[in-house]
Prior knowledge:
The structure holds two protein chains of two kinds.
Chain A: H1 2-16, H2 21-47, H3 51-55, H4 57-62, H5 72-96, H6 113-138, H7 141-161, H8 169-190, H9 200-226, H10 231-246, H11 249-263, H12 272-297, H13 301-309, H14 314-329, H15 331-344, H16 356-363, H17 375-405
Chain B: E1 22-33, E2 36-47, E3 51-55, H1 62-69, E4 77-82, E5 85-86, H2 91-99, E6 101-104, H3 116-126, H4 132-145, H5 161-173, E7 179-183, H6 191-206, E8 210-214, H7 218-224, E9 227-232, E10 235-240, H8 242-247, H9 252-261
Parallel strand pairs in B: 3-8, 3-9, 6-7, 7-8
Antiparallel strand pairs in B: 1-2, 1-4, 4-5, 9-10
Amino acid sequence: MTGSIATNATAWAKENLFRNWRDAVLTVVFGLILAFLTIRVLSFVLGSDWEIQRVNMRNSLVGPEISGTDLWGPVIGIWLGAAAVGVLIGAMDRAQHVDDPGAMLDPLNPAHWPQLAARTLDRLWPLLALVAFSLLLTTSAAGLLVAIATLALGFLGRAVGMRLPLGSLRWAALAAGLAPLVAVLIIRYGFGIDWKDWGGFLLVAFAGAAGIALSFPLGILLALGRRSKLPAIKALSVAYIEFFRGVPLVVLLLIGSLVIGLFLPRSLIPSEAIRAVIIFTLFTAAYFAEVIRGGLQSLPAGQEEAAKALGLPGWRITTFIVMPQALRNVIPAIVGQSISLWKDTSLMFIIGLAEPLRLASAFTRQPEFRGQGLITLTLFFAGLIYWVVSFTMSRESQRLERKLGVGQR
Amino acid sequence: MTTEPAGGGLRDATVTRGAGGVMIDMEHVDKFFGDFQALKNINMKVGKQEVVVVIGPSGSGKSTLIRCINRLEEHDAGRIIVDGVELSSDIKVIREVRRETGMVFQQFNLFPHLTVLDNITLAPRQVRKTRRAEAEKLGRELLERVQIPEQAEKYPAQLSGGQQQRVAIARALAMQPKVMLFDEATSALDPEMINEVLEVMKELALSGMTMIVVTHEMGFAREVADRVVFMDAGQIVEVGTAEHFFTSPREDRTKLFLSQIL
Lengths: 409, 262
């Protein structure tokens, strides 16, 4: 067995890496560069003293103001999300195996565990690696328990999802969509944690998710508005899009806080974090609008004509025929814009919020770490989390594309 | 049905077959695209259950003619009356006419993101408010009728061109229209697939459907057309039976065109 695998590997290497002397040189050169970089990164990660990140792990994740029993808020939020996503995946699995329910992987059946573990690793390895790295740093039993419970809830959700009746898929999707909202409400009102106390990745995850969720529908409306036959709506949409695309986000964040503060009575001014979410939403909607307009223009005119010829009213043509195809065509650009917004949440630095970069720099001013040049470590960790989330979004979008591409065009 | 070739006035394609009366009435219809006049003073009546084949060179206005009937193009002058309803810019009137008028396109224009069955049931469910189960029963019956019942769950891209066009016909029929418009329905098909679509169209014609068919298939015209209309440069040049066109076309333009395609 091993022999044949080894022979296959040799054959593969010969075919793909050393086909001729030029390929061989390139392989060796790039292999050396890759090895060099890997060693450098590993020696940085393994050779550094991560004490600063170890003691500040909780600060990095939820900010310095959330502690004690309040920590249950974010934890319950994560559990809720994991369970809801699990249910959704289970329901999707069920819908995919209508004819052959036996092919579904059941988390309650230990015989399926190896396959489930392999699939989960394949799909979520960046996230799991990050969690493992953090747990190794902190060696915190509580953290380990929370992580294990999160995974368990995800699998439990999947077991429930695959047992739901067919046709529950849309409800499962709705639940997964609403779970983050419920989580936010639990943290904010259930645990009474004021917006100004949200920090770290809790803060930017909230801002990013809310920004994407709100700007997407607004972007759709603006894209349709820009194509409207009514001059007033069209002009308004164009003006909106061109304004928000033309002004740097940093300026908008600064002005936004100022402007909203000038025009609203003091009691109605939302807190800094909410103001930032509003600005992110308004800004990203302008970009979404243009991306979606591109998708609309990519559709052949025949699609709309065929729908019209059937007597469908205009908004139903948009809902059932035009928009689904237009959005599918621009998934890569939509995801790119979402990732862009996700990374831009670090700009909340500028309006004084306790987002990860501000915290990363604040840790290095703590008495025991001051003046030791440790900011590379704290920034590395903050950047790592941003990257893992972006990378996961990117991979999931590719899955989605493959799925929606099946048998279509 | 007036197919009488004698006399000068064949430019008015007047009626009709049976006692059913007029289904489509076009009077003095003009259509412009910018400065270009695509239709010039079109007068045409189509009787209930009549099958009219429209032929003519490329750019002669054939497609524009039938696209005006369901208002995919807006005519600039004259009147178009479909089953007693005169087309106006009132969207309710337009939708009423479109509900009664099925159209089949050269490029099929199936909805690629929906299954075959969903392509067919979408309009009955959304426009006629037919319940899902009922719409799907109708959809499967129609697929039976166009002889591809086994393709219901597939996506359009998984079908051959001929199958796709038959789905498109079924989709149009699902609204139970009173008129069917065919806009070069076989022109984009590979030669070996043309017949399977023409067979479905013939069956439809024999079932008594009122049809206007833009096509170059003279064999089809000969078999099922009650009348053939020859158009050139936005005008109706000559009207007659298919036989008339094969044996004794009168106008020089008609003769020239027929010599090119036959």
